[in-house]
């Protein structure tokens, strides 16, 4: 029976359990996210959240009380300087437990416990209240038709801009080269000059004629 057992003993002695939770709390404060079993994560949630609430009041007494639980001066400094200002407006619920499956070997439930205000993935999707809401009239169909018309007009403007850019990007057409001027029809071509007679043949014919006269 489970009478008067208000917390999980985690199968450890009192000193071992306190040391385990102190180490896990210091790791969570320093790294903002740790992986452990679901049972330990639930015990850690009950252990560390009152310390985060205590850190909202930055006094010497609060620091000494938190140090008596964490037993790590670097974790205490991180808690009071970084975490406390980030969670100042949150009224509790500083941690989140995300189950990730079962561990190989003993099939223990594994989870991730993290600080809510230091998860950048979740905080990126959060918008200010009323920032993403569009003002609409009661005539839902008319508003939807106006939105569709505006979208079509925007697409047409984009297509026209793309077409003008493509026309401007085309290179200018090359002009054909000018043909060479034809020669004038009235001027006849010059006749080639006659070739000069060979000197050796003329000398031989002259010698023959002299010999015939002498004979």
Write the layout of secondary structure elements.
Elements: H1 14-31, E1 33-37, H2 38-54, H3 60-70, H4 73-86, E2 95-102, E3 109-115, H5 120-124, H6 140-169, H7 199-214
Antiparallel strand pairs: 1-3, 2-3
Helix pairs in contact: 1-2, 1-4, 3-4
Question: Overview of this structure, please?
Answer:
The chain is mainly α and 215 residues long. The chain has a domain of 111 residues: Alpha-Beta Complex (50s Ribosomal Protein L17, Chain: A), CATH 3.90.1030.10. Helices cover 52% and strands 9% of the residues. A 3-stranded antiparallel β-sheet has the order 1-3-2. The chain is elongated.
Residue fraction in strands: 5-15%
Question: What is the typical, i.e. mean, pLDDT?
Answer: 78
Structural class: mainly alpha
In one word, what is the shape? elongated
**Name of the CATH homologous superfamily of the domain at 14-124:** Ribosomal protein L17
H-E string? HEHHHEEHHH
Question: What Rg is obtained from the alpha carbons, in whole angstroms?
Answer: 51 Å
Distance between the termini: 171 Å
Q: What is the topology, as strand order, of the major beta sheet?
A: 1-3-2
Main beta sheet: 3 strands, antiparallel
What is the name of the CATH architecture of the domain at 14-124? Alpha-Beta Complex
* Helix content bin: 40-55%
Oligomeric state of the chains present here: single chain
CATH topology of the domain at 14-124: 50s Ribosomal Protein L17, Chain: A
Number of helices: 7
Kindly provide the name of the CATH class of the domain at 14-124: Alpha Beta
Low-confidence stretches: none
């Amino acid at each position: 029976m489970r009478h008067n057992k208000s917390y999980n003993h985690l199968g450890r002695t009192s000193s071992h359990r306190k040391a385990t939770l102190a180490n896990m709390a210091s790791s969570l404060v320093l790294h903002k996210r740790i992986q452990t079993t679901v049972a330990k994560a639930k015990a850690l949630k009950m252990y560390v959240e009152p310390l985060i609430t205590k850190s909202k009041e930055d006094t010497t007494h609060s620091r000494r009380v938190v140090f008596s639980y964490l037993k790590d001066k670097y974790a205490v400094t991180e808690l009071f300087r970084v975490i406390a200002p980030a969670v100042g407006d949150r009224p509790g619920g500083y941690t989140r437990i995300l189950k990730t499956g079962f561990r190989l070997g003993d099939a223990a439930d594994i989870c991730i416990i993290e600080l809510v205000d230091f998860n950048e993935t979740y905080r990126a999707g959060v918008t200010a209240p009323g920032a993403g809401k569009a003002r609409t009239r009661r005539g839902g169909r008319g508003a939807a038709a106006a939105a569709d018309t505006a979208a079509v007009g925007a697409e047409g403007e984009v297509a026209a801009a793309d077409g003008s850019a493509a026309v401007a990007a085309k290179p200018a057409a090359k002009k054909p080269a000018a043909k060479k001027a034809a020669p004038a029809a009235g001027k006849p071509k010059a006749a080639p000059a006659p070739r000069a007679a060979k000197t050796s043949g003329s000398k031989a014919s002259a010698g023959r004629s002299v010999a015939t006269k002498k004979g």
